[in-house]
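Aggregate trends can hide what the representation actually does to any particular protein. This step matters because it turns folding into a mapping between discrete strings. For completeness, the protein is quoted in full, as a sequence line and a line of structure tokens:
=====
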Amino acid sequence: MFHAMTVKQFELAAVERLMEHAEKLRTMDRRALLGQLQGNLVATLFYEPSTRTRLSFEAAVYRLGGQVVSAENARENSSSKKGETLADVFRVVGTYVDAIVIRHHSDAELDEAVSYSPVPVINAGAGSGEHPTQALLDVYTIWRELGRLENMTVAVLGDLKYGRTVHSLLRLLTRMQGMHVKLYHPPMLGLPAALLAELEQSSIEVTQCDSVADALKDADIVYQTRIQSERLEGFDEQCATDDYAIHVDHLLQLPAHARILHPLPRVGEIDPAIDPDLRAAYFRQAENGLYVRMALLDQILNGSLT
């Protein structure tokens, strides 16, 4: 049984197979898709807010002919409010369904509880730890936009300390050849020391930048993120967003072939005036999440990943 908990489980060959499967599902007739997960029931348990991740997972199940039972705001509107442990949630819900997709506020609690689930569990974002399916769709987007997954400069901006999407993406990039990562972040929001050490021990070249313009110069991919205000106290979010935002004039520093990604939601760190530019790929990126999650669910529930 395969629990998709971290990108560390995915070698590059597995990522490439997943992307190929996503492309195949993308082009299939919708009526043909309905047979892929027919008879399967998936639970989506979201203890933290979500729009794209929850809806794309649920849409993925329905597109493939499966069905969904869902608990939104489960931290407040489930027996978690009464003190029920996550291990017990998995023990019980796992008897009702064929797979569980979960977003949780504590990566440590999720890691400890997953072994109690009798069905596959997919991590849909865990605290400030990882968000593996976001990284998979990010890499799929890079491949679709640039046609390669090697020899690239990737600029990563914003909250790198609590941004779980960043943590997962950077770990996936260590699987690839010829990668240069440029980092630009508020002083208090740099990468966790353990992750920075992982990068430095890999073949990735890491550069710290001192301005947005410096980060964007010569970048093939710009990965912008928001400040994770829900995990911060006493931090001037507005100041940080202003200082680290991408504005129209920054496009002068960005190569014509480059692409700007963002896991969304954005809250001021990308000027909406940039949206019409071909280099703004974040809404195509969000769409790609549907097909990657379709592919992952199909592989897990039909036995390709075990």
About this structure: The chain has two domains: 7-130+289-301, 132-285. The chain has a mean pLDDT of 92. The chain has twelve helices and nine strands.
